[in-house]
Design goal:
The structure holds 2 protein chains of 2 kinds.
Chain A (H helix, E strand, L loop, with lengths): L1 H14 L8 E15 L5 E15 L7 E13 L12 E17 L3 E11 L4 E14 L2 E13 L4 E2 L5 E9 L6 E11 L2 E16 L2 E10 L4 E14 L2 E10 L17 E13 L2 E13 L2 E12 L5 E12 L2 E14 L2 E14 L4 E14 L4 E11 L6 E11 L1
Antiparallel strand pairs in A: 1-2, 1-23, 2-3, 3-4, 4-5, 5-6, 6-7, 7-8, 7-9, 9-10, 10-11, 11-12, 12-13, 13-14, 14-15, 15-16, 16-17, 17-18, 18-19, 19-20, 20-21, 21-22, 22-23
Chain B lengths: L3 H21 L17 H4 L12 H9 L12 H8 L10 E2 L5 E2 L7 H8 L13 H15 L12 E3 L2 E2 L1 H21 L4 H4 L11
Antiparallel strand pairs in B: 1-2, 3-4
The chains are: A mainly beta, B mainly alpha.
Chain lengths: 410, 208
């Protein structure tokens, strides 16, 4: 009921100015039919009918500072129920991704407000809340954010959680010199009114020279008294078409404050990586990455990634990548090829994924995915798209899935 | 030692300098470039480390930019652009694959993700939790255990005992090493405290 009340108030508030101002309304609708196999239901095919809608109402006031944004879907599940999955009965589900009132410059040049269901993010914590987000900006070189509300948790096609699931946070940021940003943040998450997470975050990024960017992030978990995440990276641009990147990342597994898991000892995950991206010509780009992963106690893995992005002719885009991984947890050897070709109002896309994998002391095999898609743009207002996919792997031989959609831009 | 007058001048000059510098280098509004293709960014940013940030590895890098309070993502993107990947939406019908539950999956999820995820979740385990809550893992794993434990084909790790109540030291060593490295993964099948505290090894475990 609480949520319905908030939405009703927001809608009422938003539509009052419609009487006196020329507001702009934009909406995108996508009506989709989806089919897919569910390996937990004796491989029975499942079918859904979904209606996605995004609504943007802007210029709700004379100055154009107030707007309303919403995005959600309603889904009808035509499912074949099995004995051990009673939740698969035919039913209707709704999911609201966001619905908020955006008031830019509520205090001129100093305060932005978002109220309603909105996505919030900081180095300390992030999530979707039913609440408010305030950005207090341009206080000299300093700014601050404050956010808080009910933590929205999406589950299988619907929502779970209670009023006791909350998420709060704040940050103070400093944009001192060109392209330098320092931000301290604090975040807290409650589950059923009990403290689950409390983090302090630090983000920094600076560009001391046109060709050098240095950045980092730290997240401190006050529950375990450990740095949950540490990141330090350098990006270099020695040549106009060459980007190099080196990163060190460390992660300490953390758990909810009330979880018995937090009383066990854990090893840190450490990763060192280097990556390069080179624009050979305006039509061809090659990329490569190597990462050394350290899981503690002499367990490690190597990850190699190479790729090619190409536009050999004007309307054709190709994307090829190859990944090789060995070491702890398993071996993977796979490639992906996909492309898009445009013919007038139609874009045809297709791809192949192939993976040969070997999980440590358990499953191994190959997995193949073949897919093709089409997007037809009849006009700026109407378009239609579809995707068909065949999977051949441990779970399906074959398994078919896909969707067909009709999209309308109002 | 600075006297009060000099200290005041230094502090005020520093504050003034910070304000001037900050105002001089205000963030560039990118709204007018909303319809531009990522390749067009090179016209202004080519050869500069400020950008080219929508490159090949942007899927893993974007969080560093997006989480800044003063980020300019919203100049071009609505929140639906984020949530279509993070929360399983598909408004703009990108050619994404479907998950076991009919949700749209980001392209980071390779071919047979159900089989491969035990390997790929090893590549930075915290990545999973950026979109999924722990119940997402337990929901599937618990059901698998209820149905047919053998189908999971995971590395065998049932405790072995040398005598009643005395676990095999080799198993203890292997179990503790794996648990230290994979403890977040353990939650997937063992959300209940009883799974650990029932054994003599962890008799007085706190928490729930």
């Amino acid at each position: 009921m609480g949520m319905i009340r908030i939405v009703a108030i927001l809608v009422a508030v938003a539509f009052v100015p419609l009487l006196s101002h020329a507001t702009e309304v934009k909406a995108i609708s996508s009506t989709q039919y989806l089919w897919y196999p569910d390996f937990q239901s004796a491989d029975t095919d499942q079918n859904d009918l979904a209606e996605y809608l995004r609504l943007d109402i802007t210029k709700l006031d004379k100055e154009g500072k107030i707007s309303l944004h919403g995005y959600g879907r309603v889904l009808y599940q035509f499912s074949t129920s099995v004995e051990y999955r009673p939740e698969l009965a035919n039913d209707t589900y709704g999911r609201m991704y966001y619905f908020y009132l955006d008031y830019r410059d509520a205090v001129k040049d100093h305060l932005d407000i978002r109220a309603g269901r909105t996505y919030v993010y900081s180095a300390a914590i992030s999530g979707t809340i039913d609440g408010a987000y305030l950005n207090i900006k341009n206080l000299g070189p300093v700014g601050a954010t404050l956010f808080g509300g009910r933590n929205v948790i999406f589950d299988n096609k619907s929502e779970v959680g209670t009023g006791g699931d909350t998420l709060f946070g704040m940050s103070i940021y400093l944009d001192t010199i060109k392209n330098t940003h320092v931000e301290m943040s604090y975040g807290r998450k409650n589950v059923d009114s009990d403290l689950a997470r409390e983090n302090v975050g630090l983000d920094f990024s600076t560009t001391p020279h046109e060709k050098v960017n240095i950045y980092g992030r730290a997240q401190y978990d006050t529950v375990s008294d450990n740095f949950a995440e540490l990141l330090f990276g350098v990006k270099l641009v020695p040549l106009k078409d060459l980007i190099l990147r080196g990163e060190y990342y460390q992660n300490h597994p953390t758990f909810d404050a009330f979880s018995f898991y937090r009383y066990f000892n854990v090893d840190d995950y450490k990763e060192m990586s280097i990556a390069a991206e080179y624009q050979v010509t305006s039509e061809y780009r090659v990329v490569g990455k190597y990462a050394r992963e350290d899981f503690g106690d002499d367990a490690s893995a190597n990850l190699y990634d190479i790729g090619l992005f190409a536009r050999p002719i004007k309307d054709l885009v190709l994307n090829v990548s190859y990944e090789y991984r060995d070491g702890f947890a398993g071996q993977l050897n796979g490639f992906r090829i996909n492309g898009v070709y445009k013919i007038s109002k139609t874009a045809i896309s297709a791809g192949i994924d192939y993976d040969d994998f070997r999980r440590e002391s358990s499953r191994d095999g190959t997995a193949k995915k073949y897919w093709a898609g089409i997007l037809y743009e009849h006009s700026k207002m109407f378009s239609a798209s579809a995707r068909f996919e065949e999977n051949i792997n441990y779970n399906y031989d074959p398994g078919y899935q896909g969707f067909a959609a009709i999209n309308v831009n109002f | 030692m600075l006297n009060n007058g000099k200290l005041k001048i230094v502090l005020m000059s520093t504050a003034l300098l910070l304000v001037v510098v900050c105002l001089s280098f205000a963030r560039t509004d990118h709204k007018e470039y909303r319809e531009a293709k990522p390749g067009d960014c090179r016209d202004c940013h080519g050869g500069s480390s400020v950008t080219e940030n929508h490159g090949a590895f942007f899927v893993s890098e974007h969080k560093e930019l997006a989480r800044k309070a003063s980020s300019n993502c919203a100049d071009c993107h609505q929140q639906s652009f984020c949530l279509d990947c993070h929360k399983g939406g598909n408004l703009e019908t990108e050619q994404k694959s479907l998950s076991r539950r009919g949700e749209y999956m980001p392209k980071t999820h390779r071919s047979d993700w159900i089989s491969i995820h035990p390997i790929k979740t090893g590549d930075n385990p915290s990545n999973c939790y950026r979109c999924h809550e722990t119940p997402f893992c337990t929901g599937c794993h618990t059901r698998q255990i209820q149905q047919d434990r053998g189908k999971m084909t995971i590395k065998p790790h049932r405790p072995t005992f040398v005598s009643p109540g005395v676990p095999d030291p080799a198993w203890v060593s292997d179990h503790s090493a794996n648990a230290r490295r994979n403890l977040q993964n353990c939650q997937g099948c063992h959300p209940q405290k009883g799974d650990c505290s029932n054994f003599a090894c962890h008799p007085n475990l706190k928490g729930r």
